[in-house]
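Shipment paperwork, digital attachment
Item: protein structure file
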Amino acid sequence: MECFNLIYRLLVLFCITLALIGIWQSWDKFYLFLLLFTTCLLLFGRWVRDMYAKFVYCCLWMRGRVVTSFRTLVVEASNYLARKIQKWELSDTMPSLLLLSPKMDAEAHKEYIRRLKAAIDNPDVHNIALSGAYGAGKSSILKTFKACFTNYKTVYVSLASFGEEGGNEDKDENRLEYRILQQLFYQVKMSDISESRFGRIERTSLGGKILWTLLLCLMAASYVCLFKAEWLQKLLPKVSSVFKQEYINVISLAVLVLGLAFLVFKLVHFLKRLGLKNLGVNVSSASLEVEDKKNVTAMNRYLDEILYLFQRKKYEVVFFEDLDRFGDIRIFTKLRELNQLLNQSEEINRRVVFVYALCDDVFGCPEDRTKFFDYIIPVIPYVNVSNSGDLFKRSFMALKLPKDSLSTEFLTDISHFVNDTRVLKNIVNEFTLYHQVLDAKLNLQHLLAIILYKNLYPKDFCLLHQGKGMLYDVFASVPLLKKEKRNLIQARMQKINDDVKKINDEILGNVSELNALVVAYFLRQIPGKDKYPKDFNGHDVSVEQLFSDDYVSLILQGKMGYPSFNGRCKPISRDQMRQALGEDFDYEKRKELIEKRNDSELDRLYNERNRLDNKLTYLENLQLHDLVDNVQGVFAYVEAYQQLDDVGKSEYDILGYLLKEGYIDEDYFYYISIFQEGRMTPQDHEFLMSVKFDKPKGYGYKLTEVEAIVTNLKNTDYNKPAIVNFCLLQFLLKREEAYANQCYMFFATLLQNEGLDAIYDYVRHYGSVSVFVRRLVGFHKGVVDELFADKIHSLQDKLKMMALVFAHAEIDDIRKINEDHPIGEHLNDIDEYWETFALCDENKALGILDIICLKLKTLKDGNSPLCTRLLEHVCESRMFQLNMNNIRFVAEKNGLEFGGQEVSVYSSILNGNLQILKKYVQDDINEFAENVVKEKYENFVSKGEVVELLKNKHVKFGTKIDLIYHKDFLVKDGKEMDPDLLAFLIETNKILANLDNVKTYYTSEDNKFSKELVDFMNRHRAELADDIKSKTEIETGYDTLLSAIITETCLNKDFAYAIFDNPFLGEIWKEQVSLLNEEQLFYVLRKKYVSFDYMNSMVANRFLHYYMENDSEFDYGLFIKSLEESGNEVLKAMASAKCIEKRMLHLKEIPHCLTAMGDSFEKFKRVGDNVKIPNVDGYKELVDALHSVKYLGRVVPMGKEISVRVLKH
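Attachment content:
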């Protein structure tokens, strides 16, 4: 297009240039005409083209304008019709209003109006009081009076003080007077009181402005005509002659004079309104002084204005209302003076009556009240405390609300809080408006409570929108109330947990076992095996008696013991028992725990804990009224309330009551503003802030707009402990695919910061349980172990949780858990194992059974087809223990019986036809043996069958050990047993006590006496000693054993004595008499199994001690030999003295005995001599004994010696 334009312009320029050249060169006219025609044709074509383009543009523009105009017309028409329709709809549905302004009611106010008119008409009445309480209807009476009697010229002054703060009393009074004057003057047109100085803005109309402009213009024109005519001659010379006419000058002069006069009048009027005090003008200066009335009250300052007003307006009655609200009675004094002035004014010359609508208590003194007013009309209140409730209920019952939306009980409950008619009407008005604008699903009782709060506490309601105020602080303190409740519940739960743990940790099954424990430790404190218990009174007590509660109590009190050397009771003190049982041992506490467990105390504790757990879970969902018991509790943690005095606190009693009863709750924000989608509630915002600052609110904290919260959370927020909230988790799980990453991070945080209680709470009270369980099991492989390791929750809770795991977890996840944490170990001992499969389908349940490989302790029939199918699978797959109950169950299912008295169960299985059991036992004899250990049924296996199981090589060594310790049997021949088992058989006395078995074990121990063998032999010394004595020959290998028995010091001496007593075994030891110990040598010498030649000094002393005992058997020859071999002179003297006292030695044998005693005692043989011997122990006893048989005479002590005389025998 640009190229075409350029060519076009060049062509036109070329044609014009040729034409000019042709004209200058005088070319032929034909060629010139042709050039000019071509040029014009080019220009005309371009013009036509441009005109066509403009035409097309105009057409398009016109079409756009037409379309736009048409659209605008259609839109405007539609809008007009819509507005008309809305107007019609609004006209049809206009609400009925309860106006707060005074209401005319001639019938209701008839008597008041009659009396008021009579008082006004009375010439002696100038001040009338219409007195009554606020809201009694005074304003309505005045309004009705004005409407009924329009013939009176009245003016109305209504003032009110709504919570204004007091200041300077004079200023307050002046301001009040000024406000009265304002109402009096501003009700009147300015034109009616044009001379008034009372400041008002005079509005000049357009016509007035035009007149003023014309006046000034005319005055200016007149001035020019009179004094500046030459200006007109210069400006308008043609018409200047007209302005020279005489009448023009006359008219100009008149206009100028009149205009100046009017201006002077207005100036004087203006200066008068300024209130000039002095105006002075002289040649040299001028002064203008304004009147100073600063120290004069408004009423006095404008008194002339008031007179002027009443003079102009002809007022007869002035109504004053609400003056009493200012609490200043001085204004009434001023008004009374003003009324008197008005009535006495000659310029007014008519009676003016002041009518005051005020409260009864304006004048404290009744004399002042009656003296001030000429007539008082009391107004009986329409609403007061006694009837406000009925009026309140009637007002709301009249509204067309849904049935039961406002209950009668609720209206009755709150009706007594409103005692003012205007407040009541406003509550009704606001309630209807809020009800129509807000969500129709809102609770109307809560809405009415909010409206009541709004009207009774308007300032606090305003602060509520700013997140401030008493109500906001109350709800902000709810977390503190919940914390207090939570601490109480958690303290009780901790106490229950401690009690449950103590009961579960108590290993003893009953009080008898506890008593047995105490008795066992008591018996251990008794030294020696031949002593028996005694009480404090010295009475013997059998061991069986000790197990009674009374004796156990005496033991723990240190009042039981054992016999001492003097036969009395030597007590085992309380400290000794405490030291033996342990410092922490408390019999009474353990007894209490055992009794609680046996009395189903655990179930009660579990139930109580579940109730508390539910309370704790629901605690976060509890509202304020659920947490408090009284009004004071509502404000317990509100600092602003606590700082108030008693009067200040009482002002919030109504608010506290509304909160305590739940009429205002945490959802208040729905009732004070229009709800918008996606907007978070204050609780939601508080939770979001707690996450941002990582200050946990508890996983049960209630959320409302969860999606809005999730939108404001970052991924890093899910790693904070404060994120754990079950409302949030439920939202995420319902949208698992969209929030998969957030779910993963949430579970990591949950399991890291919360325990099993949180898991239980979620599955009990929240949704999306299947997703929750699947996520939980997939994330945490040890969850099953933790469930069953928990000692706090009951078994029923655990089974329900496992049912959820089996139902919702993936099979692969269950398999992975079972690899490292076998699930069957937890279910084997549970009778109701099938409850864990209650939520599964059959195929999944059978698959889980194959994975976890149960070994059930108890088989039971279920109560559903699934249970029956599971039981069949368990039996077919041998998923049960081979105990008596299960064997009997399987047998009965197959129509057989086991467990008769004559044949053991084991024999019945092996010899029976029930192949499922027979093959099970044969294929896994070790498992059967393990169950034998646990089985308490007496005829499950016979004693001989236990021995056979011990011999079976397929039974594991550990199982055999368990059999030895737990089953009752007796092995007769130790040679048939595994040598490694002999020690256990010896230790548990499960092998026959004979010399053959002793020899077998002795040989297996490399010919050594182990501690177990020694203890065994000592326990069975009687049987073994008899076996030794019965030997008639020395069998091969027994000589070594018998020789070892003699030399083994740990064995009881009875074994060696049995060998000594058996004449067939003499060759084993007689060749080595010198190797016998003192005790043994004493025995064989006393029994005269060897000659006295083997006597030595030590054995001699042993014999002398022996003969000193009361029950010793005396042998004179052995005694003499002992005296000869002993080197202990004191011992020989004491032994001889003892034998003389027991009359074992005759008088004639004493000399021989003294000779055997040695040279020191030869002096006693000299008859008639006085002998002196040392006065020491032994010698003294011997002298006394010889004196007692008259071998010696009188004994005379002489200090360190004793003098005696030997008598003749």
